[in-house]
Amino acid sequence: MSFKYPVVMPKMSMTMETGELINFHVAVGDQVKSGDVLFEVMTDKIDMEVEAPADGVIESLVANPGDVVEIGKPVLIMLTETEVMAFDFGAEDEPVAAVEVITAPAPAITTPVAPVAPVAPVILNETVKAVPKARVEAANRGIDLRTVRATGPDRTITMADVNGAQLDPAIAKRQAANKALIAKGIEMTRGIAQASFTRSVNANFDHATFMAAWAKVLRNRPDLAAHEHIGVALIIESKYGSALPVFRDPDQLKIADLAALVASTTDAAKNGKVPVAMLSGATTTVFDLTTYSMSSATPFLFPNQVTSVTIGYESATTKIVSLTIDLNFCDFYDGALLLDALVASL
Amino acid sequence: MSDRMLTMAEAVREAMSIAFDERPEVFLLGEDVGIYGGAFGVSGDMYHRYGSERVLDTPIAELGIVGAAVGAALSGMRPIVEIQFSDFTAQAMDQIANQAAKIHFMLGGALHVPMVLRTPQGSGTGAAAQHSQNLEPWFASVPGLKVVVPSNPADAKGLLLSAIDDPNPAIFLEHKLLYKIPGRDPVPEGATRIPLGVSKVVREGKDLTIVATGIMVNKSWEVAEKLAADGITITLIDPRTISPLDMGPVFESVEKTGRLMVVQEGPAQAGFINEVIAQLAGSSSFGSLIAPIKRLAGMNIPIPYAPQLEKAAVPQFDDIEAAAREIVKNWR
What we know:
The structure holds two protein chains of two kinds.
Chain A: E1 3-8, E2 18-24, E3 31-32, E4 37-42, E5 47-51, E6 56-61, E7 68-70, E8 74-80, E9 100-101, H1 132-141, H2 159-164, H3 169-189, E10 194-201, H4 207-219, E11 231-234, E12 236-238, E13 241-243, E14 246-248, H5 255-270, E15 284-288, E16 307-313, E17 319-326, H6 332-345
Parallel strand pairs in A: 11-15, 15-16
Antiparallel strand pairs in A: 1-8, 1-9, 2-4, 2-7, 3-6, 4-5, 6-8, 10-17, 11-14, 12-13, 16-17
Helix pairs in contact in A: 4-5, 4-6
Chain B: H1 8-22, E1 26-30, H2 46-50, E2 55-57, H3 62-74, E3 78-82, H4 93-100, H5 103-106, E4 116-121, H6 136-140, E5 146-148, H7 153-165, E6 170-175, E7 200-203, E8 208-212, H8 215-228, E9 234-238, E10 241-243, H9 248-257, E11 260-267, H10 273-281, E12 294-298, H11 307-312, H12 317-330
Parallel strand pairs in B: 1-2, 1-3, 3-4, 4-6, 5-6, 8-9, 8-11, 11-12
Antiparallel strand pairs in B: 5-10, 7-9
């Protein structure tokens, strides 16, 4: 199974509309690894090397060195072994699923992910002067006050400035794309008979412990798994949207190694960066609501996943664990047993 | 509900009379409080009603007056001292700050000093620099004293009764310009007490919180009334007791309005009202501010004798109105 993946002209600054292709670092037929430099691009502001988003083979070169290419238009096409959910958040067009399946589709393992490119916001004030509530509000809404135009006395940012502030267009784009992604996910989930189960848990656990415990429970139920591995997607919110890095077989890692991986991945995701290798292979999803002091969320199942789990806030010492199952694959009894086993192992 | 409108002088006299009737150990002493009826006529006819045993005319010797009162308080009496002008408390400051405020603590709580020192303060009478000061911070910065600043007759009566009951020495700062003015609210009959250390929300609005003391409460109220007609509504808070200070209503209000203005008559530098700003700045309500805090206070100068300059030296209606409009207009 391989996928055709167009590598496009990236948007590298707010004002960028086109970029000039300087040269290719690869030729047709080259085998590339994720992170290898594919080509170099020049804009009015910066030169940048564009890297391979995943391992694969160069199928064709679309543009020629010296060409001025619009952002979002393909520069080269590569074939990848893993499906890359490619939404070009910088382009003006609707997010395009650039995946073309050219072999017979196997059960796809799809993880909706907001991928990741650095955003270059327009800095209006290097030193921010703002009324206290504007800082609180900006922090809550993920607004960088340096990008907000100050109209208050002595060039101070007022509440009116924050309320009128547009989100950085790049971030807004991501959020819109994210919405489209979620809508698509819901569309695909709709019609799946599902059931949810909830239990209070009087235990302290971190994401690593929880994911390892959950993977271990799932491993005892190979009948539920359509896959040979267990991939736990952890939803991490950032100003770039939701990222869902996938932790493969977390129960088979040393817990300290897993904890370190979770910590570094969470940090990276919050900065809009998730290693490409972690963007696919999810078989279940974990959503921690305690960050928001919420106890539960609408039950959800991502496409091709049979289970999802939320961790909710009940009190300082108690959490609420909710499991949602796809009733096409398991019944209520299975659901109850799964949750029971999960809670027992915490 | 009574609808009696009294002046502050009448309300204070009524409170003292009620205390005289309730407790034989209450007495009044000071310069000209007896036959003359007090420099501002506050004790009035009390000498004639209660006699020279309980309304004592004293020599012009403030340190001696307060010293006598402290001694009497230690011996089980409840003296009320009147000092003719608050400026003259400087003469008595050792008895006030070092004796009255501290004896309870120096003696391990064995004795207390239930004394009330009433004294008129403030400018606006053309009495120049030595008879016009607002000395709220002198007293508010001495732990061991309770400091009361009534802004209207009803509060003056209720707060004075509580101050007389209180086992701690209390400084009761009455503004001269309020003595002859009837309050906006009627003064209840009988021994109605108002607890010390409870701020009063005088009126509620959504655009601006004003914290003011004494006569500035009245000026701010008039401004609030005028601005309400233009759609700017103000929450006005009168701490009433500046030590101990009740900040709760201030925090609560600033969280709603997001804007704070403080108004005091005394000089801005190291003034009492700065304490309100400091406590707000250090509280979790700080994050609710949508505007810099505005302080209106007296200038850092001795009160001038020339009437125009005297007026210009402390916040007036126009200053408060302009500042309130500006803060609401500029910070949205």
